[in-house]
Design brief:
58% helix; two-stranded antiparallel ribbon; Arc Repressor Mutant, subunit A; three-stranded antiparallel sheet; Fic-like fold; mainly alpha
Length: 387
C-alpha cells in the first residue's frame, strides 16, 4: 500500500547549502498495515520457524554453546556490512590474544559488537527494560575503542549526520536534525511498550528496525545497533528464549534490495513491501539456524564416536574434545585450565586429535600454539566470506 511520504522535511542550512532533513512520523503506520491472506501466511510461516529455532536449544546439550558461536558469527556479519574486513577465525584469535597479522582495528570493532550484545543480554536478564537507555549503554560499548570511539559513544548525536555522499548537500538521505532525535527516539520507545499496539512482536520488530535506521540517532554504529534491535525485541517479548535470530547474512546477501525497501517505506509509505521482505528473511534465517544447530550436533556426535573408537585414553580425549565444542579455537593452556589436565597430557591428547584430523594447529609455532576444530569453524563461517 502506497501511503505517500511517511514523514516531513525540515529545511536546514549547513555551510550555506540548503538541506532537506527527513523527520519520520511516529509508529504505527497510518492507515494500518494491510495484513492480507498472503501476508498472514508469511507471518505464520515466520512465526513457526521462530518456534522451531527456539526449541532447538532443547536438542543441544549446552544451549550456551550455540549462543556463543552464533553471536560471534553475527558480529562478523553485521560488521562486514559496515565495511569491516574481519573473519570469524580472526575474531576468535583476537579473543585468545593470539592474533598475528590480524587487522587490529577491524577485529577490535567486531569484538566490541560481541561485548555490546552480551551487555544487552545481561541487562535484559536482570529485568532491565528494552529502552533508549539500554541502547545508549550498548552503543557506548560498541564504540568503546577503535574506529568510531571519537563519535560520542553512548550519546544521541548533537550534530547532523547523513547517509551516502560526501556531505549533507549531496547525501542520499539526511536523517532528522539533532534537535529532533530525542523526541523521535522517545516515540519509538513508546511504540515498543505500547500495550495497545495491534501488531504481533514480529511485525513490531520489522517496523521498529526501519524507524531506528531512519532516525539514525547516533553518529556511528546505527546499522549494527539497528540489526541487534530486531533480535532484542523478539527476545524481550518472549518469542525467543535466547536472541538467536540474526538477519545480517540475509541483509548482506540482499543488500541493494534492503536499502531500496527502506527508501520505499520512507518516500512511498509502502510498509507492506518491506514487511514481506522481512518476514521471508525471518523464515529463511530461522530455518537455516536450525539446520546449522543440527549439523553441529551431528558433527559432535560423529567425532565423539571416532574418538571412542580410535583413541585408547578416550575419556581424557573426550574431555579435551568437549572444550573444543565450546570454543573452536583454543590454546593448550586453556585446555589445561578447563580440564585439569597437565600440560604434557593435554599436548599428547591434542596430537591424537590432530592425527584423527579433528583439529589442526594453525600458528606454525612451537610455543603458544593454537588449535582449531576445523569442521566446526567451517560450518560457522559459511556466509561470512568477505564479498
Amino acid at each position: 500500500m502506497k501511503r505517500g511520504i511517511t514523514g516531513e522535511y525540515k529545511i536546514i542550512y549547513i555551510a550555506d547549502e540548503l538541506i532537506r532533513a527527513f523527520i519520520p512520523h511516529p509508529l504505527p503506520p497510518h492507515p494500518p498495515l494491510d495484513l492480507d491472506e498472503k501476508r498472514q501466511r508469511l507471518l505464520e510461516h515466520a512465526t513457526l520457524a521462530l518456534g522451531r529455532l527456539d526449541s532447538i536449544t532443547l536438542l543441544l546439550p549446552d544451549p550456551d554453546l550455540f549462543l556463543y558461536a552464533y553471536v560471534r558469527r553475527e558480529a562478523v556479519l553485521s560488521s562486514q556490512i559496515e565495511g569491516t574486513q574481519s573473519s570469524l577465525a580472526q575474531l576468535l584469535l583476537f579473543e585468545l590474544e593470539e592474533a598475528p597479522g590480524v587487522p587490529l582495528d577491524d577485529v577490535a570493532e567486531v569484538s566490541n559488537y560481541v561485548a555490546a550484545l552480551s551487555h544487552g543480554l545481561k541487562r535484559l536478564g536482570e529485568g532491565f527494560p528494552l529502552s533508549n537507555r539500554l541502547l545508549r549503554e550498548m552503543h557506548e560499548i560498541l564504540l568503546s575503542h577503535g574506529r568510531g570511539s571519537e563519535k560520542s559513544p553512548g550519546e544521541f548525536r548533537r550534530t547532523q549526520n547523513w547517509i551516502g555522499g560526501t556531505r549533507p548537500g549531496n547525501a542520499h538521505f539526511v536523517p532528522p536534525p539533532q534537535e529532533f532525535v530525542e523526541q523521535c527516539m522517545a516515540d519509538l520507545e513508546r511504540f515498543l511498550h505500547d500495550e495497545g499496539n495491534p501488531y504481533p512482536s514480529l511485525i513490531k520488530a520489522a517496523l521498529a528496525h526501519v524507524q531506528f535506521e531512519t532516525i539514525h540517532p547516533f553518529l556511528d554504529g546505527n546499522g549494527r545497533l539497528g540489526r541487534l534491535l530486531i533480535a532484542f525485541i523478539l527476545h524481550h517479548d518472549g518469542l525467543l528464549s535466547q536472541p538467536l535470530l540474526y538477519l545480517s547474512l540475509y541483509f548482506k546477501q540482499h543488500r541493494q534490495e534492503y536499502y531500496r525497501l527502506l527508501d520505499v517505506v520512507r518516500f512511498e509509505g509502502d510498509w507492506e513491501a518491506w514487511l514481506d521482505f522481512f518476514l521471508e528473511g525471518v523464515e529463511l534465517t530461522a530455518t537455516n539456524a536450525v539446520e546449522t544447530a543440527k549439523r553441529l550436533l551431528s558433527l559432535f556426535q560423529q567425532d565423539e564416536q571416532i574418538i571412542q573408537k580410535h583413541i585408547r585414553a578416550a575419556s581424557t580425549a573426550l574431555r579435551v574434545f568437549r572444550v573444543l565444542c565450546k570454543r573452536p579455537l583454543v590454546t593448550l593452556n586453556q585446555v589445561c585450565e578447563r580440564t585439569g589436565l597437565s600440560f604434557p597430557a593435554a599436548s599428547r591428547t591434542m596430537e591424537n586429535l590432530e592425527n584423527l584430523k579433528i583439529v589442526s594447529e594453525i600458528t606454525g609455532q612451537r610455543r603458544n600454539r593454537v588449535f582449531a576444530y576445523n569442521q566446526y569453524l567451517s560450518i560457522l563461517s559459511e556466509g561470512t566470506e568477505i564479498l
